[in-house]
């Protein structure tokens, strides 16, 4: 694919390194393309996280929107869920969040939102790409250039409404680790207003992320684990760079397993739950105990959101801490996710006990560095390679990558990352030995084909 027609969008918007992939020139033309897609009129909500390049990109994308006829409703530095919420609340025509989510400081990106608070679908993104590459932008002329409005007052509405949706029964001691990202100001405030005793960690806004890498995984949460134990906290809540995700640390200082945490909240919702092909079997086990049903879809919050609407589901989430609460907004919301886990703990007891009661299987997630170009080549032959490697396959699912179910109940998924230069391996084995054998086999297949 030529640079002129290079694909812009991955599984979570546009994302890449600044000064190479994500530039002010790109943001300007994305703004023009979005405004053109909207017919050269309407209101577009714009927000950004704490990254050092955000104002550069915000100015560029707003210029593109204005030049092609749209008004800009500026939120300033806010979590991603607030952009989705404000787009819906204000009946805007679209929303733009400038963020690279959990990626390191040198990355940035652009994600687009619909009027209902749901991310743009792949078909919508494709239409934006066609306009972007054609450069056939709407030209309003000087007399019809859009206007800028500052709409910070909607932030107060978000705080009030998100608190009203939960009922935390007792005063919990909560440590909130915002990674110096977009949740740094709002998340601690919201937890306090919801009745929690809050201790903050990495809550100074800083796009260099000095306290920890913004990806909320065990390797990056050592300090949160220590603070939870040192302060005798009931729970720790860790966000990513834009606070659309969260993960917890229990009162014993253990980082919660994503699949178990998703199973816990899914069981509390009941009914029909949407998750992705990389989610573990513990979710199915937990839902079966309350008469619920699990429906799996492609990885990516927009795919989860679409399935929630199609299936009229009560809740949906990925085993990465990206959860969508359709009774509030169709945008993933790490702050509401954290509040709802805190609510469960306040009513049902210690988080460690609740998670230990959920049965799971040995789970391994790995990623192997692989260029975008090579990812396509390897994945094009992956179905064949895996079928040759395993002789006990009972099901093959190619909705997103290749997922095999084996006759002992073990399963594996190999899929290309949509946001980074990796091929991801996700699997569960009935025993640890079985899981490691599957992992080693998959790693060997991929590495043998990297050259």
Automatic annotation (TrEMBL):
**Which positions carry Phosphoserine?**
101
> Which InterPro entries did the record assign?
A-D-PHexomutase_a/b/a-I, A-D-PHexomutase_a/b/a-I/II/III, A-D-PHexomutase_a/b/a-II, A-D-PHexomutase_a/b/a-III, A-D-PHexomutase_C, A-D-PHexomutase_C_sf, A-D-PHexomutase_CS, Alpha-D-phosphohexomutase_SF
Necessary cofactors: Mg(2+)
Give GO terms for biological process: carbohydrate metabolic process
Q: Where is the Alpha-D-phosphohexomutase alpha/beta/alpha domain?
A: 7-138, 157-253, 259-358
NCBIfam families assigned to the protein according to its UniProt record, in alphabetical order: Arch_GlmM
What is the recorded name of this protein?
A: Probable phosphoglucosamine mutase
Naturally occurring in which organism (per UniProt):
Methanobrevibacter cuticularis
Q: What is the lineage of its organism?
A: Archaea, Methanobacteriati, Methanobacteriota, Methanomada group, Methanobacteria
